[in-house]
Amino acid sequence: MDKHLTTPITEEITKDLHAGDYVYISGTIYVARDAAHKRLKEVLDRGEELPIDIKDSTIYYMGPSPAREGQVIGSAGPTTASRMDKYAPRLLDLGSKAMIGKGKRSPQVIEAIIRNKAVYFAAIGGAGALISKCIKKSEVVCYDDLGAEAIRKLEVKDFPVIVVIDAEGNNLYETAILEYKSI
Questions:
Q1: What gap in Å lies between CA 168 and CA 55, rounded to an integer?
Q2: Scanning 44, 98, 104, 126, which has the fewest C-beta atoms within 10 Å of its C-beta?
Q3: Structure pTM?
Q4: What is the pLDDT of residues 48-60, one digit of tens each?
Q5: Contact of 141 with 153, CB cutoff 8 Å
Q6: pLDDT tens, 75-105?
Q7: What's the rounded Cα separation, in Å, for the pair 34 and 148?
């Protein structure tokens, strides 16, 4: 089923999402990859406040390429989500409700998704140039020294994703395999 959502993505929204749903997100999402997640962990370990509002946030695992003249951003495809698995449960426990990446997630992340009524979306790998057309604004909000891995705030319109793991733990990567084997 196709659904159009506007951020922030709250528990009220995630409870109505199901593995396999096609979703188009509009609003604000944050970009953070490995190095940024490591810094966020260090900030939390020191007992300091995060540089972004994590409550009901959507975090996209992506490292953009440089923008060409006249563009907001360069290619903006997803990166492998499992690289953030050691950080994701803590951010989910702090209130983040959605993650966007590609690939499978660890059992610990899936447990945190269920515990926090969150959701994991997949963006289509290899379609970064097309995805970038949905990004209307991009600004670095912190960790500029990390270059492509800095935390960015994106304004998106109809950003296409698929629900892979829903708030109940249903996992499209598992159910799709079973469905395929039954054919």
A1: 20
A2: 126
A3: 0.93
A4: 999 999 999 999 9
A5: yes
A6: 888 999 999 999 999 999 999 999 999 999 9
A7: 11
Question: Residue 149: how many CB atoms within 10 A of its CB?
Answer: 21
Cβ atoms of 157 and 136 within 8 Å: the answer is yes
**119 CB-near residues (< 8 Å, 6+ apart):** 9, 14, 17, 97, 98, 99, 113, 163, 165, 166, 167
Alpha carbon distance 104, 82 (integer Å): 6
85-105: buried (b, 16+ CB within 10 Å) or exposed (e) per residue?
bebbbbbbeebbbbbbbbbbb
DSSP-derived 3-state class of residue 137 = strand
Write 152-156 long-range contacts (CB < 8 A, 24+): 152/30, 152/31, 152/64, 153/28, 153/29, 153/30, 153/31, 153/52, 154/28, 154/29, 154/30, 154/31, 154/60, 154/73, 155/27, 155/28, 156/25, 156/26, 156/27, 156/28, 156/29
